[in-house]
Design a protein that fits this description.
This protein is about 60% helix and about 0% strand. By secondary structure, the chain is mainly α. The radius of gyration is 15 Å and the shape is globular.
């Protein structure tokens, strides 16, 4: 069982944060006010406000994906991203979206509590 768990762990520890950053940008950018794309309504926030929030967070996650991953700033942006993804999970009405939102939130939670910087450059 331990060998199976080792196989499932990411080989480069910064990659999950990088992927979370991309997902955050993919959620944010299409919701920006100058795009005319339809979305399912959220329960308590306008999509364009969430678009601005997620685009800023995604950019911050991207900037801190490698060198600054375990810095105070990197942990803060991961914590803000965690809260934003939990908020999106609460605000959405799709079960599939909720599960994806919780997965990204989990990745960002582990980024908040990480113990090493893992300065991996792509």
């Amino acid at each position: 069982m331990k060998e199976l768990l080792n196989q499932l762990k990411p080989k480069q520890c910064a990659i999950p944060r990088f992927i979370a950053a991309l997902f955050t940008l993919w959620v944010g950018i299409p919701r920006l006010p100058f795009f005319d794309t339809p979305f399912s309504p959220l329960k308590f926030i306008d999509p364009w406000i969430y678009g601005i929030i997620m685009t800023i967070i995604g950019t911050g996650l991207l900037i801190t994906s490698y060198k600054y991953r375990a810095s105070v700033g990197g942990r803060i942006i991961a914590a803000v991203g965690f809260v934003a993804w939990i908020g999106l999970a609460v605000a959405t009405s799709s079960t599939t979206s909720v599960l994806i939102d919780l997965t990204i939130a989990t990745i960002l939670f582990f980024e908040v509590i990480t113990k090493h910087p893992c300065n991996v450059e792509l």
